[in-house]
Amino acid sequence: MALAYIGFKEALDLTLKHVPITKARYLPLADSSGLITAESVKTQADSPSTDIAMKDGYAIRAADVDSASKTHPVVLNVLGMQAAGQENDYTVRSGSAVRILTGARIPHESDTVVAEEFVTISDNRIAIDQPEV
């Protein structure tokens, strides 16, 4: 039996033909689970209001580990630790990292958090052996 294929436009038309369109209605947020918004939802305030770490690890500059490999790991000096609620006093320069805990503010000039399971720790330095972690 041969399979028949249809194009994207035809598939979209068939789908929309069989999907019921309902009227938009206003609901409390708590009652809207599982529904689709009829228009963009806007908030009055950013939340969180600053960039924070979503996992424990090390805040680094991604460019520092572009050349990392199993045979030539990149070694970075750890400047200190940043925990949730602490002032953001660290600036991550090339060749450095900051230990960061979940919920902590991302240190200045860092753009990546490497999860702790992807680093090897030795004294006050970490080694990273892959560029995309």
Secondary structure elements and their pairing?
Blueprint: H1 8-18, E1 57-60, E2 74-82, E3 96-100, E4 112-115, E5 120-122, E6 125-128
Parallel strand pairs: 2-3
Antiparallel strand pairs: 1-3, 1-4, 2-6, 5-6
Describe the structure.
This protein has 133 residues and is mainly β. The chain contains 1 helix and 6 strands, in the order H-E-E-E-E-E-E. The protein has one helix at residues 8-18; strands at residues 57-60, 74-82, 96-100, 112-115, 120-122, 125-128. The protein has a 6-stranded mixed β-sheet with strand order 4-1-3-2-6-5, with no helix packed on it. It is flat and about 65 Å long.
Record keyword descriptors for this entry.
133 residues; mainly beta; six-stranded mixed beta sheet; 8% helix; flat
Report the span from N to C terminus: 45 Å
Shape: flat
**Biggest sheet details:** 6 strands, mixed
Given as residue ranges, the uncertain stretches (5+ residues, pLDDT < 50) are none
In short, what is this structure?
This protein has about 130 residues and is mainly β. It has 1 helix and 6 strands; from the N terminus they run αββββββ.
